[in-house]
Each structure stands twice: as structure tokens, then as C-alpha cells.
Amino acid sequence: MRLQHLKQQMLLYEPTGGVFLWIASATSRRQSKTASSQATMASKRPVRITWIFVFVFHCVSPYHCADAVDSTAKLLSRPRYQTFYADAATRRRMRAELVAQAAVSHPTYSNSTSLKMEVVHRNMILKTMASAYGNATMKDTIAQMIARDSARVKAIQKRLAMATGVNMSRTVSEEAISAPVVSGLTQGSGEYFASVGLGTPATRSYLIMDTGSDLSWVQCSPCQSCYKQSTPIFQPSSSSSFKYVSCTNALCKQLEQPSCSRSRCQYEVLYGDGSSSIGDLARDTLGFTDGNKVTQVVVGCGHRNEGLFDGASGLLGLGAGTVSLPSLLRESFSYCLPHRSGTDSSTLIFGSSAVPNGAAFTSMERSQRIDTFYYVDVRGISVGGERLEISTSVFSLGDGGNSGVIMDSGTTVTRLASSAYRALRKAFSAGLPDLPKVRADDLLDTCFRMGSRDTVNVPTVYLHLAGDVTLELPTENYLLPLEDAHRTVCLAFGSSGSSLSIIGNILQQGYRVSYDNSAGRIGFAARQC
């Protein structure tokens, strides 16, 4: 009767959260040594009775739950489901509360050992240019983001194909082929901008943060071909610290496509999506938000600039190549990307304090074919507490250079190798059987209508990395609300259409991501912005 009562109680709860077991048993007499003696004594000794108690917990926070039990099967102690809130104001409030809690529990960074830049989302910059762009609806904003993103991924794939000698027609994704053709002057590129001061006296510039590019450059006067930017165009003649780099300088030989004009080293950067910057290689003083300055920093002075950069003053190269800013400074760096729908800014940090205490580290991988990109060793993905059946070889960086997993600040929606994305999409959809499924476009093909629901329980997504690192993603790091009348929300993952995977900035937002180049590792620290 006691066990029957327990069973009836258990049926009242659905295992929509984490589950753990408590097993207890009554003390029994010593077991006999043989099976025959056990059979003989079966009627004479007390029978061992085992009770199995099942405790169910549900995660009501969009970010975390306390672990219920220390288990060797780590996912058993993690929330299988999280609550996603339809109301944007509620999501912002809960995000702010968690950030405030993290500010109390984590130490601040020391200014004496670091160089800091302010980081803002592009939407904050373009608000200052509203008269030029008009008031875009949420639908328009997301459509433009997808168009930028498709062009970005296509450019990365094309660059890898050129570096490895692979026929682009064999690796290009369906998404890249079907992406809408849009004007670069109205689209803009880059989701996150870093605020810098260039020259003496300093001219304030907003540069696109790009871990997929090496050379930093700004639009320079005189402009032969320039796009619209939010700040005044840089005037080299107004900076007393500006100097051109000569054609004989060793730096000139490190460029991908150097040339020479009037004894000045000239650079040409082609991004694969039609965007480009051409100009003179120079050195100047770079000013940081915290008041620190670094002299003689290599920067491109672009006189002919075209493509998807609208709104920015130029580009900040954070790649791993020889002419990137981290390589020139010989420093580790980290950034925390503020939420795309918020109004807060964050920081890009160089130096010893760029790597925060408590970060979880995984190995940094590098391609032998191209030195710009940072790769991570992904070991698997879990959805709702269940490890997906994806071979680790799907995420491996092969000798060809067209596979592996790239960490990229410029890509928005995370792309997975085709087979991995199919497994993720299937498992996630199975976890939401009661929500109507819709397709927003070729990229966002896994969307759900919340309708009149204020909340919905969604499967938690986990990313497993080498070094026993597991990222438990907040809902806003893998769900993209369209903010339409149907309260449609989409899975912020897509297929790359190839063997390449790219971890985009929606997945990274809210984490301080550290690039410790000297130690060959990449770190993740939640809510240390």
C-alpha cells in the first residue's frame, strides 16, 4: 500500500525538469555463497526491499538552476528544460537581475594591467543615424540581419575555399545561394562595434569587431569611394602621430596583397562578399576607453571602401594573423557581447586581466592552411538532457581546412555542419510537440508560434567542448523571438550546407570569451561583462 501510494504521487508530476534518484534499502542478512543455498534460505530470511524515490525539479529561470545532485552523469544534475518568456520586458528584467548578481559575486578588472574598449551592438550606433535609415520594423531588422549573416558566411566559406584550393561550388551552402540580393549601402555589416580613439588628438571611431579578419583599417580622407558612417571620417593630416609605412618595411611583406605607390605600402583587403578596402598602410596612436594609449599601431588608411560596412568607421582585426591587433600587441584578449535587444555596453579587454577568474577553458585549434581563424574542439551537443548521436568527427578540423568549428564574432546565427544541424533540429522540435511549427525563411527553418502563451518550457541546449567543458546555454542564446503577432520564436541555429561549423554571436552573448593565445586556449565565463 505504501509503494502504491508513492506511485500515485509520482504520476502527478511530469519530468519536465531535471530528475534524480534516491535509492534506499532495508538491511538484510549476509548473503550465502551459492545459488542453491540462496534458494534454500529464500523462505527463511527477510527479503531486501528497495525504495526508489524520484525527485523532479523544474528550472523557472531563463539562465540557470541549482544542481540537484552530484552525479557522474553530469547532465542528470542539470535542467532538462528552461522557461522562455514571450514578453521582451520580462526577459530584459531577468537578464538585468542576473547581471547585477554576477557583479556582486565576481571581482572587477584591474585597469593597471589591461587596455579596454567599449563594445556596443550595431543597433545602438544606427539609432544615431535614424534619419538616414528610417524606423525599421522588427521584421525588417531581422531580415537585414539574416542578409548580412548569409553574406558573412558565404565570405568565410569562399576564403577557406581559396586558401585550400577547393572548388567553391562543392562547398557553398544552399543558404548562400538563396540569400536575397540587397544593397550594401543600406544593409551594413558587423553586429558589434568597438569604440576607439585614433590619432593625436584622438578622433573617435566605431570599428566592427571581427575575429575573422586581421588588418584593422579606417576610412580616410581624401575618400575616393566611401560609404556613410556615424562619425566624421578620419583626417590623417590632423594627426601629429600619423605615419605612412614604406614599401621596404617588413610589415608590408606580411600583407596578403601588398603593392607600392609613391614609396608607400598599399594594402587591398577583399572579403569575399563583394566588400573591400584599399588604401595606404600606416601607423598611428590608438586610444582606449580607459585612457591608455598605444603608439605606432599598424592600421590601414582606406581611400576606397565598398560593401557591407555602413555605419562603422572601419574594421578592428582581431584574428590570429600576424598583422592583427592581438598579434601586434602580443596580448591575450577577451570580449563580452551585450545582448542584441538591450541598451547596455560592454568591454573588449587586452592584457593580463583579459582572462577572468573562474573561466572554463577549452583548447584553441589552428588551421595549417589559414592562420586567421580561431577553432574550438566541439565534442557534442545535448538537447533536453539527451546527448545527440553526432560523431565527434563531424566537428573535427581536418587537414583540408574546410571543416572544424570556428569561433566568429561577426556571424550572428550559429551554423552547424549539415548532419549535426539535422540532429539538433529533430531533437529540439520533438521537445516542443504542442507548439505549432512554422518556417520563417531558408535560414530560420525551425520556428514555433507561442500564440497566447506568456511562457513556454523549452529543451535546454548544451554545447560540449574539449577539456570537459559544458556550456549550458541560456534560452536567449539559442532562441530568436521575431516579436510578431503570433509571438513566433526561432531556433538560432542553421545549417552551413557543408562540413564547416561556426559559433555565432547570439550563442556567445553574455559570456566573456577569452582568447589566450600564448597558452593556446579559449575561455568562457558566464555573465562577466
From TrEMBL:
Entry's transmembrane regions: none
Active site: D210, D408
Domain Peptidase A1: 192-525
Signal sequence annotation: none
Superkingdom of this protein's organism: Eukaryota
InterPro entries the UniProt entry points to: Aspartic_peptidase_A1, PEPTIDASE_A1, Peptidase_aspartic_dom_sf, TAXi_C, TAXi_N
SUPFAM superfamilies assigned to the protein according to its UniProt record, in alphabetical order: Acid proteases
The name this protein goes by in its record: Peptidase A1 domain-containing protein
Native source species: Ceratopteris richardii (Triangle waterfern)
